[in-house]
Amino acid sequence: MRKIPFTLFVVLFLLFGFSLKAQAADDSIDDQASLFSSEQITQLKEAIGPIEAKTKARIFIVSNTDNDSDSTRFADYYMLDRIGKNQNGITFYVDMNQRKFRISTSGNMIDYMTDKRINQTLDDIEPSMRNGNYFQAAQTFLENIGSYFDQGVPGGHYRVDTETGKITRFKTLTTTEIIIAFVAAIVLSGIFFAISVSKYQLKFGTYKYPFREKSTLNLTRRNDVLINSFITTRRIPRNNSNGGSGGGSSTHSTGGGTFGGGGRSF
């Protein structure tokens, strides 16, 4: 069998890897409302590729002129159809018919794009949307995603289900906390080992515990009777605010999937 030269193999690998990366970002723009020129679409795709690579999430920019349904549900179902339930993704949707723009998040992007960060992104985008500079709005959207992902999930992060009021908290460890825990584990393990060796070093192989002489057994009979039981319930209020402080992310369910996000009119 003829062998492929190593240099040719490397070239083919790089070309193949590049084509896969390009293909991943190639279907990220769905501009049915013709808001962007062909050059602008190319620039947006080039910007999306590296962000998708580091976030491990799909990024979509979508626009249309004929949507009569709720813009939130449209954005959620669009991403649901493209990547499935609870997969990593984020969509910037522009509804030209209802004059609304929406950010929808799924999977890990719910945690990176908290309510506070989404509201800040919407604040940054809104002036461009009102001025009709949709390309600048899309660029700002992408820049904010990359910046917030680099900052990481905020400490004390939690999700709030706006439909049930359920709060799910997440613990994230900082680099300092990881180092402290690692050092403490080593120190405590060393102390435990030293004490154990010091205590039993003269007893290995020779010492036998006289368990027959030093052990006792007492058996008693006990009956437990259930007299009464009580159940306490409480209602958790819903959190219907679109915004939020700290590291919280409001979520809702669409089509069996969990989504976050927020939107504005323009």
From TrEMBL:
<feature type="transmembrane region" description="Helical">
    <location>
        <begin position="178"/>
        <end position="198"/>
    </location>
</feature>
<keyword id="KW-0472">Membrane</keyword>
<protein>
    <recommendedName>
        <fullName>TPM domain-containing protein</fullName>
    </recommendedName>
</protein>
<feature type="region of interest" description="Disordered">
    <location>
        <begin position="237"/>
        <end position="266"/>
    </location>
</feature>
<dbReference type="Pfam" id="PF04536">
    <property type="entry name" value="TPM_phosphatase"/>
</dbReference>
<keyword id="KW-0812">Transmembrane</keyword>
<feature type="signal peptide">
    <location>
        <begin position="1"/>
        <end position="24"/>
    </location>
</feature>
<keyword id="KW-1133">Transmembrane helix</keyword>
<feature type="compositionally biased region" description="Gly residues">
    <location>
        <begin position="243"/>
        <end position="266"/>
    </location>
</feature>
<feature type="domain" description="TPM">
    <location>
        <begin position="30"/>
        <end position="146"/>
    </location>
</feature>
<dbReference type="InterPro" id="IPR007621">
    <property type="entry name" value="TPM_dom"/>
</dbReference>
<keyword id="KW-0732">Signal</keyword>
